[in-house]
Design brief:
- The protein has 203 residues and is an alpha+beta fold.
- The protein has 2 domains: 138 residues, Pnp Oxidase, Chain A; 52 residues, Alpha-Beta Plaits, CATH 3.30.70.
- It is 24% helix and 34% strand.
- The chain is built from 7 helices and 14 strands.
- The strands form 4 sheets. A 6-stranded antiparallel beta sheet has the order 2-1-5-6-9-10, with helices on one face.
- β3 and β4 form a beta hairpin.
- The radius of gyration is 21 Å and the shape is elongated.
- The structure holds iron/sulfur cluster (SF4) (2 copies).
């Protein structure tokens, strides 16, 4: 798996959830399919008058989520910015998504619309359809990976209690014991059961 493949999978999903933050700090989410994909970037269309556009212009942070029929969750966290060459991108997206010409006939789409670009971001890939589960993070452009989940510190006394409570059996014995991060659910069981608090949150 890699960032390009994740973007291809999002393209196959087609309709994605886009979450932003409004002016009161509240979550706002909507479905978007007016998207054009490049190997390591995506471009999406919305209308300048929508709250979505205002939130993107004032804050820019966006999370995009897709879920495949194979139980793969793909989440892209990024900042969106207005794309250079608006007319070209609007024409590209309208050519790829013919329904848009019904929603915005003639040149009304060029008047109402704006295309945002996402070329820097972090992708989280989380596959629940395999055993053990699999997760990995990737970046596009200047995106950075944020650490999540749990890790075991040197305080570990190797008692094995966390290994028994781990639903994915992804803790290997040792001094200290180690969490196989690519198979970890982030469920927190190990953190809750450790008798000496040797399991800490990452990040
Ligand atoms: S967070 Fe859950 S899945 Fe991950 S190592 Fe701990 S118990 Fe296992
Ligand atoms: S429960 Fe705590 S001390 Fe015991 S093996 Fe796990 S991390 Fe180490």
């Amino acid at each position: 798996m890699d960032a390009k493949t994740c973007l291809q999978k999002l393209q196959y999903v087609g309709v994605l959830a886009f979450a932003t933050v409004d002016e009161r700090g509240g979550p706002q989410i909507r479905s978007i399919s007016a998207i054009h994909y490049e190997p390591e970037a995506l471009y999406f269309f919305t209308a300048k008058g929508k709250e979505f556009c205002r939130q993107l212009l004032s804050d820019g942070r966006v999370q995009i989520l897709g879920y495949t029929k194979y139980k793969e969750m793909i989440r892209l966290s990024a900042k969106a910015k207005p794309a250079a060459g608006q007319t070209t991108w609007i024409e590209t997206i309208f050519a790829e998504q013919p329904y848009l010409s019904n929603v915005y006939p003639e040149d009304t789409g060029k008047l109402a619309g704006i295309v945002f670009e996402i070329s820097d971001g972090e992708i989280e890939y989380f596959h629940l359809g395999v055993n053990p589960i699999f997760r990995e993070n990737y970046t596009i452009g200047a995106g950075q990976i944020s650490k999540k989940g749990y890790q075991i510190t040197d305080a570990c006394i190797s008692c094995g209690i966390c290994m028994e409570s781990c639903p994915q059996r992804c803790i290997t014995s040792g001094t200290p014991c180690q969490i196989q991060q690519e198979h970890c659910l982030h469920c927190g069981n190990c953190h809750m059961v450790c008798p000496i608090q040797a399991v800490e949150k990452r990040g």
